[in-house]
Amino acid sequence: MNQILKTSYNLSMSKNESLVARSLQAVWHPCTQMKHHEQFPLTPIVRGEGVWLYDAEGKRYLDAVSSWWVNLFGHNHPQIKDAIKQQLDTLEHVMLAGFTHEPVVALSEQLAKLTGLGHAFYGSDGASATEIALKMSFHYWRNTGKPSKSKFISLQNSYHGETLGALGVTDVAIFKDTYAPLLLQSAQMPSPDFRLAEAGESAEQFAQRCANALETYIAAHHDELAAFIVEPLVQCAAGMGMYHPIYLTRAREICTQYQVHLIADEIAVGFGRTGKMFACEHAAKQVSDIADFVCLSKGITGGYLPLSVVLTTNDIYQAFYDDKTVKGFLHSHSYTGNPLACSAALATLSLFEQTPVLQENLKTSRYLQEKMQALTLLPIRHMRHQGMIHAFDVQSSNPQFSRDCYAAGLTHGLLLRPIGNTVYWMPPYVMSAEEMDWLVDQTALVVQQSL
C-alpha cells in the first residue's frame, strides 16, 4: 500500500502529504485506476492564478490542459469572480420549473444571438447535454408521427460523455466496452480525422470521401434514424483528431435531404477554442446553418461552475408545444439554469465582447505554432493545430508513455494529460510569450524523458 496511506495524519506530515492522504481515503477520483496512485501520488492544489496552479508548498504547475478543457481566461479571474459574488448576494438558486430569473433569461438571449438557435434547455455537464439532445430528437420524431426514427449515428472514435445515453454514441472502447450490455445500439461512420487519410490524399479529399460514406449509410437507413451527432472539427478524446470543415457542410446537406437531425457537440470546442466562437462557424456563417441542436458546456462559465445547455430550432420546439403534458419535454435537473452558474457564463461572454479574444488567440496560436517547430527533432508526427488546440503524436515503444509523460510533466511543473501517444496543449487564453516559451521547452524535455 502507498506509504502515505500507511501514515497517520500528524504534525510531521507536510500540508501536501496530509491533503493527499485524506483524499486517497475519502475520494474516489474520476477517470482513474485508484491503485495507480500507489506509484503516482495525487497532486494537491490549493490555489490558482492565471495559467498556473499552486500546491500547499508553493510549487506551481502550468495548466496546459485548462483543467480538462474548461478554463478559458485563467484561474482566479477577477471579473468572473465578481459576477458570481454579486449574484450570490441576491439569488443563489431557484428551481426553473414554474419559475425564472434574470441571469438565465439574459444568458439564453445571448446564446440565441450567437448561435442562431433559441429555446435553451439547461443541464449541469456535457454528458447531460448529450442526453438532452438525444432525447429531444427521439421525442420530436415521436411527436410528429414518425416513431420509427429512433436510432442514432456518430463518428468512429467519437466521444460524447459517459452517461448511458452518451456512451451509446461514444466510440472509445475503454469507456464503453464494460457497459455495452446497458447501452443503446448505434452505428459509427468513418471518421474524417486527416491522420487516417491515404498517402497523397488531402484533408479535404479525405473529408469528402468520409462524407460520401455517410451519405450512403443515411440514404439506406434514414427511415429509422433520428439524428447524427458529431464533434465539429476536432475529435478531442480521439487524440485531437482534426478534420476539414467541408465534412460539416456535406453532413448538413445530407441530413437535410434525408430528414435526419444533426447534433453539434461543441462541448469541448466551443467558445473560441478552435479560432472562431464556435467550431461550426468554420463551415458556415452561424451554428444554426449546420446544426439542429448544439450542445455547450465546459468553457461556457470560463471553468468556474458546472453548466451545460442545449439550443435548438423553433421547429423542434414547436413539436413539443401542446395541451398534452405527455408531449412536453419532461426532462429535469435540480440545478437547471442555476443563477450563479449563469452569472459566470454571462461574465465569460462579456469578456469576449469587451476584448478582442479571438484576434488575440490567433496571435497566440501562431506564436505557439512557430515555437512547436523546435519539437520536430523529437520522434513525432502529425504536428497539428486548430485555434487554441495544438497536438502531435509521439512515436514511442514505451507502453506506459501517457502515464510516464504525465508524471514527468508534474516533476517539471507542467500539467500535461496525454491521450495515448498524443501530446496536446489546450491552455487558457491568457498565456504570455514567456509562458509559451517555457511550455514548449519543458514539453520537449518531458517527452524526451518519457520515450
What are the salient characteristics of this protein?
globular; four-stranded mixed beta sheet; alpha/beta; 451 residues; Aspartate Aminotransferase, domain 2; seven-stranded mixed beta sheet; 37% helix; 2 domains; Aspartate Aminotransferase, domain 1
Q: Can you walk me through this structure?
A:
By secondary structure, the chain is α/β, with parallel strands linked by helices. The chain folds into two domains: 127 residues, Alpha-Beta Complex (Aspartate Aminotransferase, domain 1), CATH 3.90.1150.10; 277 residues, 3-Layer(aba) Sandwich (Aspartate Aminotransferase, domain 2), CATH 3.40.640. The protein is 37% helix and 15% strand. The chain has 15 helices and 16 strands. It has a seven-stranded mixed sheet, with helices on both faces. Helix 9 packs parallel to helix 10, helix 13 packs across helix 15 and helix 14 packs across helix 15. The longest helix has 19 residues. The protein is globular and about 65 Å long. It starts with a helix and ends with a helix. The N terminus is likely disordered.
Secondary-structure blueprint:
Elements: H1 3-6, H2 15-26, E1 47-49, E2 52-54, E3 60-63, H3 66-69, H4 78-88, H5 102-115, E4 118-123, H6 126-143, E5 151-155, H7 164-168, H8 173-176, E6 187-189, H9 203-221, E7 225-230, E8 234-235, E9 241-242, H10 246-257, E10 261-265, E11 293-296, E12 308-312, H11 314-318, H12 339-354, H13 357-372, E13 380-386, E14 389-394, H14 401-411, E15 414-415, E16 422-425, H15 433-450
Parallel strand pairs: 3-15, 5-6, 5-7, 7-10, 10-11
Antiparallel strand pairs: 1-2, 2-3, 4-12, 8-9, 11-12, 13-14, 14-16
Helix pairs in contact: 4-12, 5-12, 9-10, 13-15, 14-15
